[in-house]
TrEMBL record:
This is Transporter. Residues 1-27, 423-468 are annotated as: Disordered. Residues 174-201 form a coiled coil. Keywords: Coiled coil. InterPro entries: MdtP/NodT-like, OMP_efflux. The keyword Coiled coil applies. It comes from the Bacteria. Belongs to the outer membrane factor (OMF) (TC 1.B.17) family. It comes from Cystobacter ferrugineus. GO terms for molecular function: efflux transmembrane transporter activity.
Amino acid sequence: MLCPVAAPAQGETRTPSTQAAPAQAPLTDPTLEQLLAQALERRPELRQAEAQARAARERVPQAGALPDPVLQFGIQNDGFDGLMIGKMEGSYVSIMASQALPFPGKRALRTEIAQLGATAVSTQVVRTRLSIEAEVRRGYLDLLLVREQLVLLDRLQALWKQSADMARIRYETGEGAQSDLLRAQLELNRLRQRQLALRAEERTRVQRLNRLSGRPLEAPLPTTMRVRDMGVPELGDAESAVKDALARSPELAERHALVAQAGQRMALARRERLPDFTVSAGVMPRGGDFPPMWQANVGFNLPVFSGRKQNRVMAESLAQTETSTHATESLEQDLRLRVQERLIALAALRDTAAIYRDGILMQSAATAESTLTQYRVGRASFASVLEANTGIIRDEEDYLRTLVDAQRIAIAQAEVSLEPVASMGGGGQGAGGMPGAGSTPSAPARGAAPAGSAPGAAPSTSSSMSGM
């Protein structure tokens, strides 16, 4: 079941090749749904893409239109001594009209080529919509993570206050060292420093979401959802996930339209060998007692230079068709690979989350409680208390980051992103993006690259609480 931040785009107008709907209905979150609606209504990028699609559609009737007719006026006169119309048989006024007529079938092919071009351009509307939705969902996910990290800091601060009180009691009774008390106070000050940094980051996240949705930057953005309540999403089996990606990919729909367009260009290039016609007719009033004359003509062009023109156009169209076909095949392979990568990564993240939920978190909490109890009776060092306190919070944070990474994969699948999974970078993961790496107390988690750098690839930028 997809969570709200990973729900795919719904309800937009797509080209026929992108109409397939996701198999799973998303949960709803009022705040996120409001942000999405406002972003889709106000983002200028979407309005720009829609205007480009309208412009492309306006080119369709132009492509199939006939050339403008030509109207000619003339005069023929015998000699230069005066106007001889009505006096001389060979003097007259002429009114001529002519119309160029492409060979039958050419206009229909040109119209189809323009229509396929408009279809290719319209896929950019779908891509822009998907990218905007994904950007909002990733930004919302980042905000939830930062706020939950602040909650973890509050928990760690409570643990350190408890440890500091214990260190003070042991020092005052002569059972503990002054260094233990000083270290506890130092860690409390470090926590306050990290809280300031996270609160600044929270404001930045709120402002970014407000910008995306066209709201005032300082507008408050309350949230009720928690990362830990989202769980790990399901993408379905490999076959259905691949079919969904192939059906909804705007890039693949564009490629299919370009392949069809290249085929029509090839057909038009063949037909360009056939001559176009020009028909004309006119009347020549002679005035006086002379009856008017009339004239009708039919002309056609001779493809005497077809070896350098029409044949080269056919060769060009054939090369373009091959290019579009191979590009489509390559894109299909990339889409299949990305889906498989996400399924593999999501399975690993699901197992990692289960290990945290069913083992590490409970063991870490028990270790922290036991270590503090042993320190109280002098059977454990303060360094052990330090490691246990930081370990339980770090494990909690890494668990949250595992859930966030899983949601990012679901967002990328809903976006039909072409970015590799490795570039999506999990904050609680080690190098290479393998789930669980660096999640032990001795291996602090590191922050990832900035979010929103490319569609489908938005790593978490939330400040890590490693080394607390």
